[in-house]
Amino acid sequence: MNKGEILIIDDEAQIRKLLEINLESNDYKVVHAENGKQGILLAANHAPDLILLDLGLPDQSGHEVLKNLRTWFNKAIIILSIQNSEEDIVKALDNGATDYLVKPFRTAELLARIRSAMSKNQVQNDDAKLQFGAIDIDFIARTVKKSGTLLKLTITEYNLLSLFAKHHGSVLTHKYILKEIWGVGHQTDTQYLRVFVGTLRKKIEIDPNHPEHIITESGVGYRFQ
Amino acid sequence: MKLIEFRRASTGKQIAISSTSILVVSAACFLVRDWLGDYHISAFILLLNVSILAVLLEIIPVLIAALLSALIWNFLFIPPLFTFHIDNAHDVLLFFMYFFVAFVSAVLTTKIRSTEKQLLEREREENSIQLYNTLFNSLSHELKTPISTIIGATDTLKEAGNKLSEENKEALIHEIEKAGTRLHQQLENLLNMSRVESGNLRPKMDWIDLPDLIHQIIRKMPVDYKQQIEIEVQKDLPIFKVDALFIEQIVANLISNAIHYTPDHSAIKLKINHQNEVLKMEIEDNGTGFSEETLPKVFDKFYRVPNSRTGGTGLGLSIVKGFTEALNGSVSLHNNSIGGATFVVEIPCESSYINNLKNE
Pick from B191, B211, B245: which is nearest to A218 by CB? Predict the structure, then answer.
């Protein structure tokens, strides 16, 4: 069974080979490119379901490739990046990347991210109801239930939760969340975000110290699952 | 320190210092010349002045002071006064002897100083060679062990794959995985160390929920451990404005250090407190503690406690120190009275309370 086509854009032959073996053995069809130019060309010709894009390419910056792709390619793009490059990651996410993985990454992690990103290719995020574990969100009634019990959320907490839920599986950067919830001009007020994520976790998580839904991505943002 | 500062001043400034000093001392001697009696005494005082200057200043300002003081002595003290003329041969000889002694004293002091400097430089060079050797030894060991494991295990899998039991195959693959993680960790440490060394650590301050970050760090610990990690957070801990990634480096290295050097199944306690805008993190273990001699050295680069378990480059704690200091904080270490040791990290940082926003 073919689960979809993935384009790998990475200049390291070893990484391409490894990814190819991994993905093909998990029933994905794989094409690969070793530089940005070739990558964009293949993306146009093959119309893949997902692109794995390395930020460090020989001919042009991965950010340029991402911007170019995002002018016409609206399916998932997962960034592959190296350690200690949070600024790069944030920039890529703000430029429309769906998710990111830091090298070296675990295969299980890669496959989970690919599944999550691809599932969003199909789903239109205008569902009236969403469910995450014990949490039920009803966007029409504007209610949230945890194991069937109605939760008392403030307006800000509800807005934050619905933003997370509508982008479940993706990493949202601090800047993006602040802009969406508190508006332009509040993009640097991360203390609001810390506080509200804290109170929201207390209400929706079973153990707020080991959150299952709102996951912190250090120096980058949050992921909801 | 002050002596070196004098020498760091520009030559012009040094000349001004030396000349002023000679002028002031000569004027003082001239004023009390009756009390001094013999005019030879003032020569000794001026000579003393030149010698002191020789210790403090570079050679040119000192030579100028020697020349100036000789001329002043001649002008103000050798009869006939207020002329450069000297009457008797005895005083001519004294005048030249004065100049000669002052000159030799200046030159000799400079020579002694330059020899001292050379010795110091050689010592520093030897120290850095030793450091380099330590680095090389520990690095080659730390990198070669996992590399040998990877090559050895893959060879075995390739050559003898058919004869191996499933269990052994699995064990070999697990070893490769562990070696890879170890290599990755060592490389991370080296990169962080070079960031500390370059003095280029610029923190990016942003608000963090510290317990959230700490739990995340512990979840991500790359090593298998059998100790119990307990977290004790002060009630009503505020959020802090600090660099999350720096804190991650500090905490992860301290925990990894505790994991490495304390017995399995023992407890590692992490306490988080806050007082007067200072964030305090204590990492307490019940390992063997540190001897008096090793205590002051543990934060030194590449330092390893003698006879300690293998599997570290001696970089972790110096990384902790580097990142803590980059946040204007301090890290210290003491043995616990009941055994084990406690690392204490204190970082001054802005804090904010949830209460301020509750009504929004």
Answer: B245
Q: Is the peptide bond before A104 cis (omega within 30 degrees of 0)?
A: yes
Residue A181 and residue A163: Cα distance in Å, rounded? 8
Helices (H), chain B: 2-8, 11-31, 33-36, 39-56, 59-72, 89-160, 166-197, 210-219, 244-261, 316-326
A155, two tokens: 């307006």
- The alpha-carbon gap from B204 to the nearest alpha carbon of chain A, in Å, equals 9
Distance in Å, alpha carbon of B260 to nearest chain A alpha carbon? 23
Measured between alpha carbons, how far is A139 from A110 in angstroms, rounded to an integer?
A: 31
Q: Can you list the alpha helix ranges (DSSP code H) found in A86-135?
A: 86-94, 107-122
Could you write out the DSSP letters of every residue in B321-337? HHHHHHTT-EEEEEE-T
Instruction: Please state the ipTM of this predicted complex.
Output: 0.74
Please, are residues B328 and B348 in contact by the beta-carbon 8 Å criterion? yes
Reference B260, options B214, B316, B336; nearest CA is B316
Interface test with A, best of B150, B357, B358 (most A CBs within 10 A): B357
Nearest-by-Cβ selection for A195 from B213, B245, B357: B357
* B101 burial type by CB count under 10 A (0-12 exposed, 13-18 middle, 19+ buried): middle
pLDDT tens-digit readout, A176-216: 999 999 888 887 788 888 889 988 999 999 888 888 899 98
**Closest Cα in chain A to B359:** A154
Distance CA A77, CA A107 (A): 17
Q: Are A110 and A117 in contact (CB under 8 A)?
A: no
Is B207 close to A209, i.e. CB distance below 8 A?
Answer: no
The 10s digit of each residue's pLDDT in A140-190 is 889 999 998 999 999 999 999 999 988 888 889 998 999 999 888 887 788
DSSP string for B60-106: HHHHHHHHHHHHHIIIIISSSTTSS---SHHHHHHHHHHHHHHHHHH
| pLDDT greater than 80 at residue B310 | no
Which residues of A fall within a CB distance of 8 Å from B180?
Answer: 104
Nearest chain B CA: its distance from A50 CA (Å): 27
Chain A 101-130, CB below 8 Å of chain B: which residues?
Answer: 104
Q: Which of residues 193-212 of A touch B (CB under 8 A)?
A: 193-199, 209-211
Q: Which residues pair with A223 in a beta bridge?
A: A171, A215
Per-residue pLDDT tens for B23-51? Answer: 999 999 888 888 888 888 888 888 888 88
Mean pLDDT score, B274-279: 91
Say how many residues make up chain B. Answer: 360
